[in-house]
Amino acid sequence: MNATSDSPSPALDLSAIRQGHHQDLTDAHLAGANLSGAQLAKVNFAKANLSGSNLAGADLQRSYLRCNLRGANLGGAQLQNADLRNAELQGALLTEAQCHQTSFAGAFMAGAILSHLDLTGSDFRGADLRGANLSGADLEEVDFSNANLAGADLSNANLEEAILAGAIARGANFTSANLVCAAGEGVVWDGACLDGVASAGGILDT
Q1: Residue 1: is its pLDDT beyond 50?
Q2: pTM of the complete model
Q3: How many other C-beta atoms can be found within 10 angstroms of the C-beta atom of residue 74?
Q4: Cα–Cα distances in angstroms (integers) from residue 191 to residues 2, 31, 203, in the given order
Q5: If we measure between CA atoms, which residue out of 150, 149, 203 comes closest to residue 179?
Q6: According to the model, what pLDDT value does residue 108 have?
Q7: Are 20 and 38 in contact (CB under 8 A)?
Q8: Does 187 have pLDDT greater than 90?
Q9: Average pLDDT of the residues in 135-140
Q10: Which distant-in-sequence residues (6+ apart) come within 8 Å of 109 by Cβ?
Q11: Which residues sit opposite 78 in a β-bridge?
Q12: Residue in 67, 63, 23, 72 with CA at minimum distance from that of residue 47
């Protein structure tokens, strides 16, 4: 029987996957799967379907996650050094995830929730973050070059020394954000809220 579009493939042993017995899950159909707390470090999820899956608290360190994670729950997941370049993360929940040096370059993250995360040094070059919630996040030294931040919530976020070259910040909320020493040319600020922004030595002072 073929797998349905809204349930994991019956050929996959979720128990074995949760225990880290599968290192190559390329093209795996795991939509809606419950993998909370699973041991998934260094797993290859290339082109896998994890849409709507529960990965809360899972260990995904150094995993290859260039796959479909639309609406997935990644709350509290360990994503240190994970590769999420060009991943589909629309509407995904990443609250309390650990994302040190994680690459989100080119990822589709419209509506994703990343509030209050420590994303120091992460790579968001060319990422689509339209309407994403980054309020209160630590974005120090994050690279947002050519990212789309239109309508995103970055209120109270720390963007000290962040790179915003070519970013689209149209309608974004930067209320009380820290843009001290943030750099980059060609940012589109149309309609952005910059109330209470700290910007000494940053792009707003040039």
Answers
A1: no
A2: 0.91
A3: 30
A4: 49, 37, 17
A5: 203
A6: 98
A7: yes
A8: yes
A9: 97
A10: 89, 90, 92, 127, 128, 129, 132
A11: 59, 98
A12: 67
Other CB atoms within a 10 A radius of the CB of residue 159 amount to 28
Cα separation of the two ends of the chain: 62
Q: Positive or negative, the Cα torsion across 177, 179, 184, 187?
A: positive
Q: Which sign, positive or negative, has the C-alpha torsion 135, 62, 103, 92?
A: negative
Asked if residues 148 and 125 have their Cβ atoms less than 8 Å apart, the reply is no
Question: Is 182 in contact with 165 (CB distance < 8 Å)?
Answer: no
Q: What count of other Cβ atoms lies within 10 Å of the Cβ of residue 127?
A: 31
CA dihedral of 191, 70, 137, 192, whole degrees rounded to 10: 0
Gap between the Cα atoms of 154 and 173, Å rounded: 6
Tokens 């968001």 belong to: 124
Q: What is the 3 state secondary structure string of the chain?
A: CCCCCCCCCCCCCHHHHHCCCCCECCCCECCCCECCCCECCCCECCCCECCCCECCCCECCCCECCCECCCCECCCCECCCCECCCCECCCCECCCCECCCCECCCCECCCCECCCCECCCCECCCCECCCCECCCCECCCCECCCCECCCCECCCCECCCCECCCCECCCCECCCCECCCCECCCCECCCCECCCCECCCCHHHC
**Per-residue tokens: 29:** 């159909």
> In the predicted model, is pLDDT for residue 205 greater than 90?
no
pLDDT for residue 167 = 98
